[in-house]
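User: Can you help me understand a structure? I only have the sequence.
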Amino acid sequence: MITLCSGTGTMVEPEARRFVTPPDLRGCSVVVVGIGKSGVAASHLLHSVGAQVTIVDEKDESVLVNQIASLRQDAIRVLTGIALQDALHDVDLVVLSPGVPTDHPALTTVRDCGVRIIGEIELASWFFDVPLIAVTGTNGKSTTVRLIGAILEESGKKAFVGGNVGVPLCEAVLPPSASVWPQRLSTSSYEYVIAEVSSFQLETIEQFHPWISVLLNITPDHLDRHPSLSHYQASKQKVFQNQTVGDVAVLNVDDPIIAGMGEALSGTVIGFSLVRSLQQGVYLQGHEIKARLNDLETVVVTKDQIRLPGNHNVANVLAAVAIGMLCGCPLEAIRRAVSTFPGLEHAMEFVREVRGVKYFNDSKGTNVDATGKALESFEEPILLILGGKDKGGDFNSLRDLVRRKVKRVFVIGEATPRLVRVLNEVKPISLAGSLSEAITLADREADAGDVVLLSPACAIFDMFRNYDERGK
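Assistant: Let's start by predicting it. Here is the structure, written out as tokens:
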């Protein structure tokens, strides 16, 4: 039920929480698959609760040196450069990194033997006894969770912000006391856990139970791994699967895929919209962002107070404002946070202006929809750098925007042949062997008043380790 709190904030009072009881993992044989951030964090947590941990990665040890050092300090068994099936013998639990497909043949074999296979966010959630807020969607997740964190911090509330945004959720769990089992996240450490969750992470949840689940948008992405858009959508919708009557779902009602989901959900539904007023939710009306909860309409902030460019970022602000209101944050604190939030590195990040040309780093624009929204954010002529690892996106949907907004396209990476086929007749294209070369070519072509925009519409793994490296 939605109730007004004292002061100007509005909140949902969570019902008595029914937290899961984690299994006693002491002495259990657990294999963690993937020596990335989430795998390393999961391994340390499992070791701290007494599990016998092996972490495995098919990559060679030489490229994993930094990660391995901390694992060996905890006496965690490390296997590198071997096939996955060779590590999955006599195992009680498998913790899967999101980059590993759930249909890997080795996993199918152990699953058929009744072995439980979960992901790092599922493992971490077993130990939480504070409200969990989970944000998913194709685009805008990182911006939204960081802004939610800023709103809560401005309101004097202590929140852990992590998940797919870069800090594994297992890092929120305090080391357990040897005399206490099961050990949970101490409520004196954080009041909330805010998690960005991807479709890959949601594929491996079982009991992951957010108090508030947010679905920002759904557009085609990761179709190199998901067999269809409907499969991708189903993975995103799993963020709601364990919610009950006392929980809240925050939905983008402007998204045609999301708009009809509310009727099938168990919790209270709060909408957000850029185009229409809502009976219950947060919406843009003219230049004002308004919230209506319990039939009380409140102006929260104005559009011109938002520092982030583009209407897609206004939508992210609407979602974050909804969370702030639901958590009882004072309106003044929400306004201060929204009006001072600078955005994220690598997400429509202004880099510098050189000889009248503005350079923007949107390395997090790893799918077609994100690049489309980036192009819509500018009125100036754009020199666009596209390309990377092809994820199966529909580049044809960029044709009209490129025709209207872009002077020249600079293409890099594995996706070059398909990008050229789709865009060759739309605008002039230059091929570059590297991102540095593309920037040099764009610099030569740019005139004062132009924008040079890196928004690749592709993944990074053909040329870089991650979007952070590409953006830098």
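Now, to help you interpret it: The domain at 29-114 is CATH 3.40.50.720 (Rossmann fold). The CA atoms of residues 1 and 12 lie 6 Å apart. Let me know which part you'd like to focus on.
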